[in-house]
């Protein structure tokens, strides 16, 4: 197959492929192995789905209804481009007895439109606005997998993880924020086997690119008065979006910019030295040299001294997460949290901030007890060994894979002290791992 993201190569017999996929699916659900002709993208998705505890007979849950759904949709960035998406895909969906669907970055369906008969059939599997169709909720499916892997993808028939979805075929492509590159959601076309064609995948990808282009026109890269943005979560080297430029910062410059963005009143040289260096032998000359290099990188006038401070307000993804947590918007906070703050940094102030933010978010997740949010956290590099999160997940989603993973973690906790010491010596924590 020339394109692994396309479900059927030219000349393939759909009926024969369905039979082969069903045999492969039964082998996977019974033995855990993935035989041919399952595509690698689907095999990897099946494994992720199984690790998330999704069962073959599961179903999507509806999370938003009524006024809550209406408010969320109205405020979502993709609402601005829905008229364009309808114009490009709506007639195709209605004429072909397909469905047009748009989801958010968590796989939650926001709009489902198209042929009335097809919509009624889709209602039977909760393919409806407000339902969560992420991989962690319902397994392999085009919109959920597209946002999970950030790639356009087709899912054909028995490639779907849940059995009740296997009569369907779908193609979806992610839509990105043109300013930040962040995934906003995905546009999807769902229907019968006829969609298992390269043209449908190319079509939905073109619609997604058109939506991004219109978003760029509606929200220019930077207008007068727009706030610069620094992103430092889940990355060792922060990225600053400034005047339409994306500036990648060194680790030390990342630490300085994050700390100054959180202290608009400024920091003295001694305060910065204590915040950045655990070694008392580091001299002010070293710090001044770093600040001079950062000033040249940022351009004139942005970084000033006495005390060291930024001349304009700079937003950070750290403050966005903190604001949303304080407001009780837990789902919105997890949307922004891309991982621990500058995970390779050992700067004392950054370590304290990183621990505070991570601890606050995970504590809120455990207290909230939302099974999907807990599942998402537990299957991240920073959550895969978090015993408390897995305990909370086992209480609200006690599937066999979840219990098995918790048993492993509990066994590690009760291991002999020598074993635990050996484990610590052989494997660094996520925050200590060097950048890949």
Automatic annotation (TrEMBL):
Residues 244-310 form the OmpR/PhoB-type domain. SUPFAM superfamilies: C-terminal effector domain of the bipartite response regulators. It comes from the Bacteria. InterPro entries: GAF, GAF-like_dom_sf, OmpR/PhoB-type_DNA-bd, Sig_transdc_resp-reg_C-effctor. Pfam families: GAF. Keywords: DNA-binding. GO terms for molecular function: DNA binding. This is Transcriptional regulator.
């Amino acid at each position: 197959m020339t394109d692994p993201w396309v479900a059927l190569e030219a000349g393939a017999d759909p009926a024969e492929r369905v039979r082969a996929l069903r045999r492969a699916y039964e082998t996977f659900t019974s033995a855990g192995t993935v035989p041919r002709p399952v595509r690698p993208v689907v095999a990897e998705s099946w494994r992720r789905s199984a690790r998330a505890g999704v069962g073959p007979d599961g179903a999507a849950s509806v999370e938003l209804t009524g006024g809550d759904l209406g408010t969320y949709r109205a405020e979502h960035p993709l609402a601005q481009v829905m008229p364009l998406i309808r114009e490009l895909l709506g007639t195709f969906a209605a004429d072909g007895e397909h469905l047009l669907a748009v989801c958010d970055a968590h796989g939650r369906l926001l709009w489902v439109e198209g042929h009335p008969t097809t919509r009624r059939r889709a209602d039977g599997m909760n393919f409806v606005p407000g339902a969560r169709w992420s991989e962690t909720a319902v397994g392999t499916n085009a919109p959920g997998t597209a946002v999970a892997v950030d790639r356009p993808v087709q899912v054909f028939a028995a490639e779907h993880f849940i059995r009740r979805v296997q009569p369907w075929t779908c193609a979806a492509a992610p839509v990105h924020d043109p300013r930040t590159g962040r995934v906003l959601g995905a546009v999807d076309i769902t229907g019968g086997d006829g969609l298992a064609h390269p043209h449908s995948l190319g079509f939905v990808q073109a619609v997604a690119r058109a939506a991004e282009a219109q978003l760029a026109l509606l929200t220019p890269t930077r207008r007068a008065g727009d706030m610069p943005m620094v992103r430092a979560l889940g990355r060792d080297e922060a990225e600053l979006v400034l005047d339409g430029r994306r500036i990648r910062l060194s680790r030390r410059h990342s630490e300085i910019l994050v700390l100054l963005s959180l202290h608009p009143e400024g920091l003295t040289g001694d305060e910065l030295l204590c915040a950045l260096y655990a070694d008392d032998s580091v001299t002010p000359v070293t710090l001044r040299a770093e600040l001079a290099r950062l000033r040249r990188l940022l351009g004139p006038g942005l970084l000033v001294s006495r005390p060291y401070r930024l001349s304009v307000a700079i937003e950070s993804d750290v403050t966005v997460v903190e604001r949303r947590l304080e407001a009780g918007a837990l789902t919105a906070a997890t949307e922004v949290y891309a991982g621990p703050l500058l995970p390779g940094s050992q700067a004392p102030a950054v370590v304290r901030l990183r621990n505070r933010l991570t601890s606050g978010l995970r504590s809120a997740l455990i207290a909230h007890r939302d099974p999907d949010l807990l599942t998402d956290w537990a299957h991240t590099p920073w959550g895969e060994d978090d015993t408390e999160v897995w305990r909370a997940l086992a209480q609200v989603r006690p599937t066999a894979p979840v219990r098995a993973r918790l048993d492993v973690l509990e066994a590690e906790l009760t291991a002999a002290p020598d074993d635990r010491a050996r484990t610590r010596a052989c494997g660094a924590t996520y925050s200590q791992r060097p950048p890949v």
